[in-house]
Each structure stands twice: as structure tokens, then as C-alpha cells.
Amino acid sequence: MAKKNAFYAQSGGVTAVINASACGVIQTARKHKDKIGKVYAGRNGIIGALTEDLIDTSKETDAAIAALRSTPSGAFGSCRFKLKSLEANKREYERLIEVFKAHNIGYFFYNGGGDSADTCFKVSQLSESMGYPIQAIHVPKTVDNDLPITDCCPGFGSVAKYIAVSTLEASFDVRSMAKTSTRVFVIEVMGRHAGWIAAAGGLVADQGIPVVILFPEIEFDQKKFLAAVKKKVDASGYCTIVVSEGCHYPDGKFLAEQGTRDAFGHAQLGGAAPVVANMIKLAHGYKFHWAVADYLQRSARHIASKTDVKQAYELGKKAVELAIKGHNSVMPTVDRISDSPYKYKIGMAPLSKVANVEKFMPRDFISKDGYGITEKCRRYLAPLIQGEDYPRYEDGLPQYVTLKNVAVAKKLKAFEI
Amino acid sequence: MAKKNAFYAQSGGVTAVINASACGVIQTARKHKDKIGKVYAGRNGIIGALTEDLIDTSKETDAAIAALRSTPSGAFGSCRFKLKSLEANKREYERLIEVFKAHNIGYFFYNGGGDSADTCFKVSQLSESMGYPIQAIHVPKTVDNDLPITDCCPGFGSVAKYIAVSTLEASFDVRSMAKTSTRVFVIEVMGRHAGWIAAAGGLVADQGIPVVILFPEIEFDQKKFLAAVKKKVDASGYCTIVVSEGCHYPDGKFLAEQGTRDAFGHAQLGGAAPVVANMIKLAHGYKFHWAVADYLQRSARHIASKTDVKQAYELGKKAVELAIKGHNSVMPTVDRISDSPYKYKIGMAPLSKVANVEKFMPRDFISKDGYGITEKCRRYLAPLIQGEDYPRYEDGLPQYVTLKNVAVAKKLKAFEI
User: Fold this and answer.
1) Domains of chain B
2) What average pLDDT values come out for chain A (417 residues) when binned by 10 residues?
3) CA angle B337-B341-B346, nearest 5°?
4) Where in the cell does this protein reside (chains A, B) (predicted)?
5) Residue from A51, A173, A254 to probe the interface with B (highest B Cβ count within 10 Å)
6) Which residues from chain B sit within 8 angstroms of residue A294, using beta carbons?
């Protein structure tokens, strides 16, 4: 039997470094042409597999693949699509096998977070459950940093760096303005369930910035929060607030859900930042500014963490090496050895223990009052934002690659998802 | 008579490079110790002069002053405070003279935008109107890029670079997600009256990004706008919208003023971005994400334009040189010689022609449909974002300087503003 081809796809929210993992996968596969044939990328994640919409990455030059390392976003397109269980939707699994067979695919690399690990895990069971020999390896990725076992997740370090740098810079700004103008700056960050990204804002406290963090792990107490802000402003003349999009009241209602309606009575979707800012204005009268970083934070390849880029690449590379060694249903992990100097090795975890498990901030990473980070958290975060890995610029703009993404000729009938 | 001391202050909204101008002023004054005594900085702008709250910059090391070049925000504090006319508030002018006399101040360097140029102009008239010999030189600064005569304003190039880079990165992100998730990304940028910053978002069109820009100079037409967005999404699968905070309806009402009220009936201050995003969702059903960059854009020293940093420094330096040559009531300017290769020289304009004049985007910088930039605009903007000027990092964070800001001993009675 001829050597098998590989399938690679990107899943869920993309990051500044998911393409660095793609680069690690494809470059490593190219180095092992005796073992792995072509790497076919799914256009828009697993949907590309289901619809037989495959991209032939062998049509891309080595230079283009190398440029993925410094290009944010998902070069092959991503998707938000979770495979149902085998019992609930056998048709989809049969289709996957049909596509894999048609294109001689024996390796399945899936690059994503918790939901995607579940998809990858299900695919990894196909050998056993449906008799199709496949090796499925999950490549971790999530800005939320909420995958278990691995010490951190590629994508997170760069968002953390972006938030720490941006919070520092905006805090310098508000400090300059506080005498006659803005006294409070609110920045809203991602993290619906876990406060890892918000915690990164806490790193600026080392530089003397008065900062109050609102974590999703800590139930929002308006009175206590307003008192904490006043205390900071009284002491320093200004204050920066980092609010996680997932910050919520004890009853589970998000701060962003204020039941606001526009002039026509339509419910308005707003951010948590303006809600927090207005709340402070009403209570204390402080002039405020607020920002919602949204996609800017997770796509900010221009200020990516060098550590993060390196790990993203290494995990992609390791995934291919594990496949070549015969592994299935695993995920390469970052195993921390020491904080300072920062040392780690690339390890491995079984997917059964990764899929659908969320890792929250430990309580001892959050200060007693609930509004800051502890020294333990600082020691954890600090190495993850270390180092700069600047993209190449031309005419003032980063030169990010857009691949040709040549489609592989279809061999099968169309499939409706 | 002993040589005179200089007064320097920062005014209005601060920028990523206003401290580079401060660096230019102070370093150049230090090189001309035969002509200029000490440089006293006003703590919080002109308020520092009125309240005799002066900072002795001679207490700062050469290294600290050099570090200003790569530190965002206003190192001495800024203010939003405009001197009234001499007729309306003679008391303030008398106080200024009292403070200048007490501290032997003969040079007045004011670093700000249009309102500040007005303050500087009024001070420059003191020799004539009140018999106190002073040379007042304005150092231009404004992210809004709306000062007349000068080709561009320090602070603008760096914001433009930040917005162009961020728009590019977020657009790559939404392009990755568009198949099953977000199809429209909206980024709100500064610029209440002039669309210069919004225009910078248009630079990404060169890289094939479908972008729609909402300028304050173009009255908002909802139906036409929604059609423009649909056309882009139909053609490319996604679309990025750059909306200026100053975008407004024909009756002058800002998009951000939607008359929204929270559950308690309080009027809500929101951004233009969520308004635009919700509008698109209602009309076309596209999933959206939105960001409000706010202070992040103007404080983003980490991605400052090298051209901008250089010009900010040069204009500060030139201000001192003009003072030494005996000039009063002028502002050094950037005079463009050619677009490509980009060449300019530092010129000079009379403050009487600068104060209170706003420079808007010329209509021929905006495309016919009102939603993009023209080639002429692109040629204007491109050189201003050229080059990177990275700050020094340690432990993953930029090392920005915080000065000692040692106060000069007061000699006068307190003054109530």
C-alpha cells in the first residue's frame, strides 16, 4: 500500500499563531516524504473534509509555507462545527471515511480548542468503531488557554502579550489625562468562561499601574467593585479596569446583557466595557474612556509572543512526529519544567482526557479581593509573553501571506451538511 | 541679564509620540546651555504654569530624557484647558507673567493641537499686549491630523499605522471565520470631525481586503451603506467596516447617539461600532464582531511609525532652534517635497494662521461612493506609516520611562483657576 496522505484543518476561533502550527505540520510532513504523502488541508475546518473541499498544500512554495509562521488567522479557513456523536449522526462519519478513502488519507491533524478536541477524539475512534485505519492527532490552539493537561495553549501567550502591552500603554495615557479629563479607562477582553486573558492585564501592576480586573470566575459585586475603583482613583488619581467579556452577576447574567433597547425598542447587544464605564460614571462622576479589543487581540500577530510562536510551531511539528511514530488519539502538550528560567518540554496527552474539559483560573491565581492576580499567577504568565517575533514589513504594513489554496479534484458526489 | 529658562508643556489628548517631541525639545535645549537655562515642564499643561506647578527637567538623567523618545503618553501630564481671551480673563495672563518672571522664563514651548495652538498664540502676544518679553513656539501634535499648513501632525502617522495594521489583522481573522461564523467586522476609530484616521483603514484595500469606511465628512445614508456592505459580502464572503466616531446623519446626530436606554431608563453612551454592527445584522442577518480601539490606538507606541517618531522629534528640536534664532509666535511644520521617495523638510508657519483652523479630508481623498480612499489619499498616507520604531522590551513588556518629575520650589502665592 502506498504511503498515506495527511489531512490538516483549523477549527474554532483563529489566533495570531495557529498558522505557525500549520507551518510546523506542513514543514515537518515535507521532511518525511517517505512516510507521509501530501498534506491536504480542509477548507474551513472539518467542513472541508465532509464536503470533500480539500486544499492541496503541495501546490504552495516552501517560502509561502514558511511565511505562515508569521501570518495571523487561519490560512485555510476555520469553522464552528462540532461533529455529533456516532450514534446521533453516523452519516457524517461514513462520509468522512468515504472522503479519507477516496484521497488515501491516513493521518488526521486537527488544530483547535476544546470542542475541536472532541471532534478529533471522535475521528480517532474510527479505526475501532468503523474499521477505518486513521491516526488522529490534535494540535492545541485556543486564546482562552482553557485546555487541560497542557501548561498553556498556543494563541494565548500572544493575546496575553497584546493585552498586557495595550493595558500598559492606555494606562500611561489615562495617567497623563487624569488631572482635567479621563480618570478611568476600561478595556474589555475575551474569555467567556475563563479569566486567563483578563489576568494578563494584571501584569502591568508591576509597573505601578493601578488596575482592577473583573474575572468571569468571580461573581460581580457592584458595590464592592465601585469601592475598589474609588480607592485606586483616590490613591493614584486614575485607574484602569480590565473586564472579561464573561464577567457576570451571581445569577449568571452577563454584565453585557443590560436589557438596553434602542429608540425602536430593539434589544441592543453591547459590550461589558461601556456598562462598567457608565456604572462608574453614575457612582463617582469620573470621566471615562473604554475600549473593546475583540478580534484585534487575537489577530495581533504584530505583537505576538516569541514564546507562543515557537510553541505553536513545535506542537505542530510534534503532532506529525507522533503520527509517524504510530500514535493515535493524542495531543502534544507543553509541559512546564520551571518558571524562571523558563523551561518546558513537549509532552503528550490522551485525547480522551482533553476533549470537553475546561481549565479555569485556579482561585489562588486571583488575589483575595478578587480584583487582581497573585504572585503565583504572575510567575505562570510572565514567561508566556516573553520575546518579540516581529513579522516582516513592507511600506509600513506587515507582509502576511495569502495562500493559493488550490482545490484537490473531487472524486465523490456532493454531500449536504 | 542672565540667560532665560524655558517652559515646555503638553496639551490635549496625548499620543504615542508626543514624548518624542519633548525629547527633541529638552535634548536640544541641553545642547544650547549658553542660550537656554533650565527647561521647566508644566505639570498638566498650562495648568502647571498657572498654578506654578513646574517640573525641573534638569533633575532627569540624559538616559531618562532619551527614553522619552520611545515612551507613549504625556510624561509631564496633559490638560484640556483653553485660555480665554485677554479681555475675558486678564487675570490668567497676569498670573502667567508673574510665574514666568518669578522663574526667569523667556521661552514658551507648547505641544498640542488646534486648541493648544490658540493658547500658544495668546501667550505669544504677551510681549506686545502686556510688555513681557516671551518667545512662544508651538510644537504640533494631534492624532486627528487636522492642523493646517503642516503636511501632517506628529501622532497621526502612528495611529494610522496602528489602524492599518489592526484592520489588516482583524480582516484576515474574519476572512477565516466567514464560512460558518462572523462575516462582518466593524472597527471604530477616533476622529470626531476629520476622517484622517478612518482613511488609514483604507490602506488595507491594497492587500485585497473588502473594506467600507464611514467618514465624518460624508453624511451617513443607511440604505446606501447597507447595500455597499452586502455587495462586498456577496463578492468576498466577508467585509470589514471602519467607522469614525464622528460619523453622523445628515441632521448632525452621531451614529453613536441612538437614544438607547438601560433597564433603569438611563441614557446609555455607546460606540458607533455596535450601532453599525447591529444595523447590518438586522438588515442582512450577518454574524458580526466589533471593536472600539479608543485609547489603544493613540497610545500604541509598540507599533509606532518610524517616520512619525522621527518627525515628532525633529519638530521639537526645531522649535528650540527657532526660539534661539529669535522667532516668536510660530510653529515648525512638515513640508512635503515628494511622496515617493518620501521627502520633506521642516518649515515654519505663523501661529496666527494655525490657531483654530481645522483641516478636513479633501473630497478628492475620498472615493466617489464615499466609502473608500482614492489613489491620491493612498499616496498621501503611505509614507506616514513607513518604518517601525520598536521600544525596548524586558520580560515581555516595553520599558517605558516614568520620570521623577521633581517640582521646582514655589515662589508665589497659590492661584485658583
Assistant:
1) 4-142+304-356+388-398 (3.40.50.450), 156-299 (3.40.50.460)
2) 90 97 98 97 97 98 98 97 88 95 98 93 90 96 96 98 98 96 96 94 95 97 98 98 96 80 54 93 95 97 98 98 97 98 98 92 97 98 98 97 98 94
3) 35
4) Cytoplasm
5) A173
6) 170, 289-291
